[in-house]
Amino acid sequence: MSDDGHQRTGTERVPSRQRRRFPGISSRAYEHPADRSALVALRKLTGFDAVFKALSGLLPERSLRLLFLSDSVRVSERQFAHLHDMLRDACYILDLEKVPPMYVTQDPQPSAMCIGLDEPVIVVSTGLVELLDEEEMRAVVGHEVGHALSGHSVYRTILLFLTSLALKVAWVPLGSMAIMAIVTALREWFRKSELSADRAGLLVGQDVRASMRGLMKIAGGNHLHEMNVDAFLEQAEEYDSGGDLRDSVLKILNVLPRSHPFTTVRAAELKKWAESRDHQRIMDGHYPRRDEDKDTSVGDSFRESAASYAGDVKDSKDPLMKLVTDLAGGAGDLGGRVRRGFDGFRSPPSAKGDAASGDREE
Question: Out of 31, 61, 136, 144, which one is annotated catalytic?
Answer without folding.
Answer: 144
